[in-house]
């Protein structure tokens, strides 16, 4: 059985990325050492009475990697594969992401070991409410603000908001983001991560002289991030030739009709059997010849085992951690541009920040205001990363970590070490 508490390779890999950026920046070693350790990690055991009367105990985590720049911020993942190590790495990436887009948050992440598709709505609600109740002391608008991630959605965020509010004895909308619109959600939040991926990809394509209109793209993972990115790319004239879900992918070299694929998925719950495309495996999909590859599923998809067979010109990481360090080296040698997760998918947390701001002000923006502000932040963050990359002659990933580290370390240093 997998040790869910073991120190694993994902956080170690994350630290290697941190170390590489810290070396180039030549940072203060003592201050940097603070950031190599999470601020706080909490494990909770979640007893739930299932529909058949049986009592099951689920395990949930929350890691607050850094609060140097503000409240911890980051999503909650429901999956059988969740481990503490994974959550720790995801929390550290959130610290970087929030600093890169320069919003006043630290980094956090949560996870519950469960398979939502095997739970009834009633059981899913009980898991969510009990997990929230167990985290009550360490969540809050000024403390730690969760959001959706893999297998969690607006409904789950609404239950979190309600549970927290019932304990607080008043409605606290700003404790969580990614909520439904009628409960303090923000216009544009659901689409924000996918929209952000497309904004940053367009910037990178422009930098490297590739037109988006008339190009081809492959998207792994057709959930919130992947389906929106595919839809928006399609809208601006990029041909989406393959997409996938956890089971497998569908491929049509003449282009997929994304609206039609979305309708099919809604009806059939999986892409398999879609009639106007050939079936491919998730591994085959990554190796399809295309201009843009958007991994938008889970970690460790582009590895030493397949990196040399990737044919895309630009990889824009919608998912967190889809590329391993060894794979990065191979991609760099092949001249494939990688727009890293901590920049490419930061649109989600940026609009989560807008949601938090709107909730706290009780004043809500139009979708146009949200999308304009998102565009402004992402374009300027991309430019800052690109400038760093040129100045130090490093790939975009190292440059992104450098920008993030610089901002967080400056805050730690200015605040000082309290003793
Ligand atoms: P989601 O649950 O809506 O969709 C995930 C998609 O990936 C689904 O199509 C699923 O079938 C597929 N998938 C799951 N496991 C897979 C596997 N092992 N192999 C291939 N496909 C698999 O999740 P999402 O919110 O779209 O998140 C996708 C990725 O984007 C994650 O890495 C997440 O951390 C990252 N991300 C999400 C947000 C957000 O706002 N939702 C923000 C930033 C980053």
Automatic annotation (TrEMBL):
Superkingdom of the organism of origin: Bacteria
Residues the record lists as binding substrate: 73, 97, 352
Annotated binding of NAD(+), by residue: 193, 224
Residues carrying the site annotation Important for catalysis: 149
Keywords: NAD, Nucleotide-binding, Oxidoreductase
Domain Glutamate/phenylalanine/leucine/valine/L-tryptophan dehydrogenase C-terminal: 186-416
UniProt-listed SMART domains: ELFV_dehydrog
Active site (record annotation): 109
GO BP term, example: L-glutamate catabolic process
A Gene Ontology molecular function term of the record: glutamate dehydrogenase (NAD+) activity
InterPro entries in alphabetical order: Aminoacid_DH-like_N_sf, Glu/Leu/Phe/Val/Trp_DH, Glu/Leu/Phe/Val/Trp_DH_C, Glu/Leu/Phe/Val/Trp_DH_dimer, Glu_DH, NAD(P)-bd_dom_sf, NAD_bind_Glu_DH
Similarity-based family: Belongs to the Glu/Leu/Phe/Val dehydrogenases family.
Name assigned to this protein: Glutamate dehydrogenase
Lineage per the UniProt record: Bacteria, Candidatus Fischeribacteriota
């Amino acid at each position: 059985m997998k040790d869910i508490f073991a120190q694993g390779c994902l956080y170690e890999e994350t630290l290697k990325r941190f170390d590489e950026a810290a070396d180039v920046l030549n940072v203060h070693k003592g201050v940097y050492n603070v950031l190599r350790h999470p601020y706080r990690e909490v494990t909770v055991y979640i007893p739930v009475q299932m529909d058949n009367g049986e009592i099951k105990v689920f395990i949930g985590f929350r890691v607050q990697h850094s609060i140097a720049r503000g409240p911890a911020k980051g999503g909650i993942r429901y999956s059988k594969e969740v481990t503490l190590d994974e959550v720790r790495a995801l929390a550290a990436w959130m610290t970087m992401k929030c600093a890169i887009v320069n919003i006043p948050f630290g980094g956090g992440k949560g996870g519950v070991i469960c398979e939502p598709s095997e739970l009834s709505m009633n059981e899913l609600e009980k898991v969510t409410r009990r997990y929230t109740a167990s985290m009550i002391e360490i969540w809050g608008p000024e403390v730690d603000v969760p959001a959706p991630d893999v297998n969690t959605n607006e409904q789950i965020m609404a239950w979190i908001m309600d549970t927290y509010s019932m304990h607080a004895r008043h409605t606290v909308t700003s404790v969580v983001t990614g909520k439904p619109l009628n409960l303090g959600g923000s216009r544009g939040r659901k689409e924000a991560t996918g929209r952000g991926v497309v904004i940053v990809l367009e910037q990178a394509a422009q930098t490297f002289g590739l037109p988006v209109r008339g190009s081809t793209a492959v998207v792994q993972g057709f959930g919130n991030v992947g389906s929106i990115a595919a839809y928006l790319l399609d809208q601006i004239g990029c041909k989406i030739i393959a997409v996938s879900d956890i089971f497998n992918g569908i491929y049509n070299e003449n282009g997929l009709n994304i609206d039609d694929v979305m309708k099919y998925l809604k009806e059939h719950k999986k892409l398999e059997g879609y009639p106007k495309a050939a079936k491919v495996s998730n591994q085959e999909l990554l190796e399809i010849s295309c201009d843009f590859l958007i991994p938008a599923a889970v970690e460790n998809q582009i590895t030493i085992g397949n990196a040399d067979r990737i044919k895309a010109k630009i990889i824009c990481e919608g998912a967190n951690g889809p590329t391993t360090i060894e794979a990065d080296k191979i991609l760099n040698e092949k001249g494939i541009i990688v727009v890293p997760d901590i920049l490419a998918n930061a649109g989600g947390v940026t609009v989560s920040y807008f949601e938090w701001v709107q909730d706290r002000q009780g004043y809500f923006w139009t979708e146009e205001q949200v999308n304009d502000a998102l565009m402004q932040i992402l374009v300027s963050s991309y430019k800052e990363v690109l400038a760093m990359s040129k100045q130090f002659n490093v790939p975009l990933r190292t440059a992104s970590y450098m920008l993030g580290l610089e901002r967080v370390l400056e805050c730690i240093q200015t605040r000082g070490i309290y003793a």
